[in-house]
Amino acid sequence: MKIHISVSPHAVAAAVDDLEMHLEVACLRQEEQPERTAHALCETLRISEASGQIGPLLLNNLGTLQHMDSHLDMARSMYEAALMKAASIGGSSGEAMSTLILYNLARLYEDKEDLVMAKEAYDKLLTHRPEYVDARIRQAHMLANLNQVDDAHEILKHALTAHTSNLNLRAYYTSSLIQNNQLKVAKDFVYATLKDYERSDVYSLCAAALIMYNQSRKSRDPNSKALEERKRGFQRAVETYQKALQFDPLCAVAAQGLVIATAEDALGALSGVTVASIVEETQLWIKNAHDALDVFAKIQESLNDGCVYVNIGHCYHARDEFDCAIESYETASTRYYYGHNTSVLLYLCRSWYAKASKEQSFPTMNAALKYSRMFNVNVIHLQPSDKATMYNIAMIQQKATELLFELPPSKRTLRDLEVVIGQATHAQRVFGSLTADLSASVPCAV
After folding, report:
1. Where do the TPR repeats start and stop (predicted)?
2. For the chain, domain boundaries
3. What does the angle CA 287 – CA 342 – CA 206 come to, to the nearest 5 degrees?
């Protein structure tokens, strides 16, 4: 039996008005209250289904919400349905909608780690819309993640030739240069962005501040001229972070940069300013770390990124609260970096080492060794110039051997002895090569 319901024109008009209202709520709430956005869009879908007119953009928006909630299969179904509806519209309007939806679908394939389908989707999109810069960026990002750095760089260079002033593209290229440790090139590039394209670009300001801060931090020249230059570098970095906050008072990245400068006393002891005693310097570090923890807790609410947990871990480590440091580093490594961020693996290694040294515990030292092995697995070729990392790993291996031999025979096994002897042999070879190295750079202790 089929039931036909007649609807008056006034009821239809009311339904349309209701539809517009829910769409407006969805737009207004998408940043602050995503759950309200989801509810409003679901109501919009219900009304659209009742009228028999479901637009492709509505399906795309609902797919985006499912995508953001990690319901990838449901999101894919909605994107695909949206694509079909957009294709049926045709014309420039349909093509514009198809481009947007296809990009979202390609991003979903990336999140599902289906890189073949993602590449096909981006290639199809760029065949019709070669000027779609975000798709070029994602292509480069996929290649970089596959360690095809040169190919990624070529894509970015070609894109920059055609879209020199695109700030998103320039931001990604800056990030790529920093990730590949090309700090001088990155510094020149980001300064060019600020000088020639947009002085108030907050991302570029934060990137410039980060580069200046790191370059100053790595300077170890003890002469007075170099120390003065180091201090000026820290001052310029702090001023640049402050400038970013002037343009965007809610910029959590800039706020985090200033907190790091405070925690490390960048304008004081870290700049080479003389401290009365080691005890006073230690107390200052502990106080600064405590103050920084309070601010990082607030930043954590607005910046959903692993770097916040890493910095919280640094603060706990400075306070010798190694269990809390390990917990923070673990959260960053597993939740955000999937165990592949080599810097975080080294931080975990360092905290487990410090905890083991404090407790004189061989099992705890073994945890430090576990992370050193994970580091070696993730770094295909350790740079010969990275002597500090080579030294740190060798130091842990030697310390584990010492701890094991200090244990009573009843608490150690033959297998343990065989493993640590092999590690100690490797450590001695590393120490020997570092001792014979006549270059100026000196490794740092853990």
Report:
1. 99-132
2. 336-446
3. 60
